[in-house]
Amino acid sequence: MTVARTVAAVDLGAESGRVVRAGFDGTRFEVDIAHRFTHSPRTENGILRWDMDTLSGEVTAGLARLDAGGGVVDSVGVDAWGVDYGLFRVDGRLVDSPTCYRDPRQLDAMKRAVDAVGADAIYDATGVQLMPINTIFGLTSDLHDHPGRVAAAEKLLMMPDVFHRLLSGSTSTEYTAASTTGALDMRTGRWATGLLTALGIPDRLMPEVVQPGTDVGELRGGFTGALSAARVIVPPAHDTASAVVAIPFTEPGALFISSGTWSLVGVETASARVDASAKAVNLTNEGGYGGTIRLLRNVMGLWLLQECRKQWRRDGADLGYAEIAELARAEPGLVSVVNPDSTEFLMPGDLPRRIQEYCARTGQPVPSTVGAIARCAIDSLALGYRRVLDAITAVTGTRPVAVNIVGGGARHALLSQLTSDATGLPVRCGPVEATAMGNAAVQLAALGEFSGVTEIRAAVENSADLTEYEPHARHDWAAAAVLLESLTSADGP
Description:
Elements: E1 5-12, E2 16-24, E3 29-38, E4 42-44, E5 47-49, H1 52-67, E6 75-79, E7 85-88, H2 105-117, H3 119-126, H4 135-145, H5 147-151, E8 155-158, H6 159-168, E9 173-174, H7 175-178, E10 184-185, E11 190-191, H8 193-199, E12 209-210, E13 215-218, E14 231-233, H9 239-245, E15 255-259, E16 263-269, H10 276-280, E17 284-287, E18 293-299, H11 303-314, H12 321-329, H13 351-361, H14 370-396, E19 403-406, H15 413-423, E20 427-429, H16 434-446, H17 453-463, E21 467-469, H18 477-491
Parallel strand pairs: 1-6, 6-14, 9-12, 15-19, 19-20
Antiparallel strand pairs: 1-2, 2-3, 4-5, 7-8, 10-11, 13-14, 15-16, 16-18, 17-18, 20-21
Helix pairs in contact: 2-3, 2-4, 9-16, 11-14, 12-14, 14-15, 14-18
């Protein structure tokens, strides 16, 4: 395979990261994971924070491998999860380690902000789903509980742009990452300064917003090999935005599920939908590549299984995800369900116990085995996806006719089949590495290899291994959907 251009896609997830070498030969992508690592937040002085030493060290190690690998790497770009941010001093140093959106402080801060200005005012100013993880609620907590953080800061940068700054000195933030803050007016693409002022958040913190594909400077770090002349080109820096770029949609208006620690479930639209109907069902508008909007809702995602697995390991059962899935497959379906988005599942800890307590409190059979608890979680995720599908249909007036799943969750055969069963729609899974591919593709487009997203998706179609599922009518998903709606209403917003 002769590759015309090669780029480096740094893809940071909330549990793991990878540095990927990606090339394009005019027809197909070639994707090679040069470096993979795991990481997790840690508690410092009572606050859950990201381990920047590990993250920056592993990113540097991955780029060093590429640098020593021969050939030429033309550019580097970083994508990461949304909502979290770093605060920088005037001298360019971080004030402290960025805090994690799963810290309990966010729950109290959301209540404080809503009490101060009202939930309607927050949504009307931004068009962003109200969730305790949103950046504005972290900043609200900073102002109330840790005012020294804000006082010491000159500028806020979203997590992927923290790394763009470390790699190039850039002081801007990328549009799709900024769109997850709950502080950007998604109709205009500008900071919602009225909302920021009402919450007491200094607008001096908010950086220039640049579009995906922007060249923000030469790569720093003293690389002398393959990366010696590389530029830093920001991709769609929110990982879901990069993933959606690399979805080979089967039908116009198809539902996408970017499935990882979080599941982001939505459709691509031409403009933001900020109205009473979208607000009523708490849909969010997030920025996409090429001037698009992703109309979606966050669903808790594979976090439910990840945290259960950690607890089972602590209890002495060191099971892999494939083993857990097989145990779940052997269980009858829809015996018990939970609201996967309940805030009681947001924080780290003993999630199996919390699932059991939820089922007991809501008068359902209490799952007692690993397989039964996992089946409850997986059924609930599939139902959660159906619930978002119904909300999007109600708001747009058009029901999607297919589902595309990308990301790590595309490998989960049971969840994929149950998603097809729950929605009654055909499901197409892949590519697994959609985020890295979308990241790389936008860099390549900036370098002249693609004219836009249509060409990118055609190349992905040629390059990816895709798996398809058809719906089976094995369970009463309609009745289960009614139950989930009642559980969600009881849990509150």
